[in-house]
Amino acid sequence: KAGVTQTPRYLIKTRGQQVTLSCSPISGHRSVSWYQQTPGQGLQFLFEYFSETQRNKGNFPGRFSGRQFSNSRSEMNVSTLELGDSALYLCASSLPNNEQFFGPGTRLTVL
Amino acid sequence: GEDVEQSLFLSVREGDSSVINCTYTDSSSTYLYWYKQEPGAGLQLLTYIFSNMDMKQDQRLTVLLNKKDKHLSLRIADTQTGDSAIYFCAEPLISLGNMLTFGGGTRLMVKP
């Protein structure tokens, strides 16, 4: 069974731009969560989607948004990028309330 | 909010045992996880333990859970250089969907 895939793996943007990251979950998994990892703040929860509905949201500004499609694939969007948004963005998929399996991440650099 | 705490760094010699410790605060967690992150990679689920268990063994890995003290540990027997990585403990907040709260991670360095 294929694992969680994330695209792109690396991304360089400039301040003020917006970015969209994509995540394809493990087949059969309908829950997708997103996390931000930075050296200073560690791993922080962004949001979780289940059956195309946002089930929970972390403490991030409204510039961070996401969605989930009917095939369970998910995207997250960050608008008006700031330098502090530079991070590794990790996506995880799971069965409901079950162990989460992570993708390799998208490393975003904001210049 | 709930905090999960870990020591930052651990150095051991190849062949020795490694013990990575974690404390958590949410006593309602039904299970707790250990993840491994190698440089430039995502998180790999190593093992997990249900809250009604005291110990779980999986090959070289042993997880101990002390619910009274809210203390979790991961023991790696016969540590190898390939075990060098950052190890995270995590607890889910089931009341908030499937959100995981992570510790800050313990960097394990294995010297040959």
Rg measurement of chain A, Å = 13 Å
Low-confidence runs of chain B = none
What is the approximate shape of chain B? globular
What's the total helix number of chain A? Answer: 0
**Morphology call of chain A:** globular
Strand content of chain B: over 45%
β-sheet strand percentage of chain A: over 45%
Structural class of chain B: mainly beta
Radius of gyration of chain B: 14 Å
Element pattern of chain B in H and E: EEEEEEEEEEE
Helix content of chain B: under 10%
Oligomer: heterodimer
Helix content of chain A: under 10%
Description:
The complex is a heterodimer of chains A (111) and B (112). Chain A contains no helices and 11 strands. Chain A has 111 residues and is an all-beta fold. Chain B is mostly beta strands and 112 residues long. Helix content of chain B is 0%, strand content 56%. Chain B contains no helices and 11 strands. In chain B, the strands form 2 sheets. In chain B, strands 2, 4, 5, 9, 10 and 11 form a 6-stranded mixed β-sheet that branches. A 5-stranded antiparallel β-sheet of chain B has the order 1-3-8-7-6, with no helix packed on it. In chain B, β7 (61-66) and β8 (71-76) form a beta hairpin. The A-B interface holds A 4, 6, 31, 33, 35, 42-43, 45, 48, 50, 55-56, 58, 90, 92, 94, 96-105 and B 33, 35, 41-45, 48, 88, 92, 94, 96-105.
